[in-house]
Amino acid sequence: MGSIAVDDSLPQTGTEFPFPIVSFQPFLDGTSEGKEEVAARLYDAFHNFGWVYLKDFGVSQAEIEEMFRRSKQFHEQPLQWKEQFKLNDPSVSQGYTGDGAESSDPLGGKSHKECYEHRQVNKLCPAVGELDEWTTWADSFHKKLLDLAGHVASALAMVLGLDVDEFRGQLGQLDGQLRLLHYMPVVRKTFESGRNFRINPHCDYGLFTLLFQDSVGGLEVDRFHDGKFVAATPTPGTCVINVADILQRFSNDGLRSTRHRVMAPHLTQEQLDAIGPDGYLPARFSTAFFVHPRRDFVVKPLVKEGDQPHYDTCVAGCWRDAITAKNYKLPIPMDTPEQVQAAKCVDMRYKMAANIEVKPLVG
Ligand SMILES: O=C(O)CCC(=O)C(=O)O
Ligand SMILES: [Fe+2]
């Protein structure tokens, strides 16, 4: 096959791919054999498949269903009510973001989604007692995922061959951002032209992300950052681990950030005919838990002997604020030398992302 422009491939949904499913239970059981076994499976998954599904991770199916019920409950509220919580400060990173308001597409594409993000900060969230104690639930689910994230961080340290205690000490208290996403029903042909997505191709920008999806589908992964997306089929009882930019930078590409997007769900011809070109694709719900290190963690690539650093050093909190501000169209903080340096690194990140978008596909 000759070269084709990446734009032509955008409506195409990838083929299904047999990503490995790793049970996290032996790690949670806490024996050193169990931990080593899980780390070895994760190593194999990341290196041979580029991505991994996790099962038996200590969050029950009932808790996941309750999370989706709560997300639906929030998003069903009138737009005006949700907009009182509009996310407006990158250093807070909590609140509501409406349809199309956030995009990390370097070519200005549109992501058709809305989301509410929760960080256990007493700002821009429903009042205690409102929506059936909604915030109390969000705080406790956030805490549950943060505990899991601590174990996943330790497992990833083992995957990288690092001393777990030293690595966890460097990361400090992890900071989670619970993002409840709603992809509203969209006219089917929306995704067939221009740069329209449910979520544009991107890499997450913390350490790693735990991602839960409902049964609708549409999540796709570009394992090798070459524009060849494969479908990440919803699998009950699992979440996935997306390696994110800080871990890629810190490990000097020892682990690769997961490039992913959400497109139209994969439907049978019969389902497509029933919808018709002007009909609506079904809504989709997913939940991401973005995991960041302490704000003053210095992201300096760990360079192996004989290698060079692949990235400039930056401070994690400044990196996070700069990308959040850029994606949510807020002013990028530039008051300190660390903020200026992070903004430079972020600028480079978007140039690299744009380069992938315009690069012709070969093969
Ligand atoms: O909805 C999904 O499955 C992916 C969400 C995502 O990539 C994100 O919020 O960063
Ligand atoms: Fe993402």
TrEMBL record:
Ranges for region Disordered: 92-111
Identify the SUPFAM superfamilies for this entry: Clavaminate synthase-like (SSF51197)
Q: Which InterPro entries match?
A: DIOX_N (IPR026992), IPNS-like_FE2OG_OXY (IPR044861), IPNS-like_sf (IPR027443), Iron_ascorbate_oxido_reductase (IPR050231), Oxoglu/Fe-dep_dioxygenase_dom (IPR005123)
Please give the start and end residues of each transmembrane region: none
Alphabetic keyword roster: Iron, Metal-binding, Oxidoreductase
Ranges for domain Fe2OG dioxygenase: 173-293
Q: Name one GO molecular function term.
A: oxidoreductase activity
Q: Which GO terms describe its biological process?
A: small molecule biosynthetic process
Family under the similarity heading: Belongs to the iron/ascorbate-dependent oxidoreductase family.
Q: State the name under which the record lists this protein.
A: Fe2OG dioxygenase domain-containing protein
Lineage, highest ranks first: Eukaryota, Fungi, Dikarya, Ascomycota, Pezizomycotina
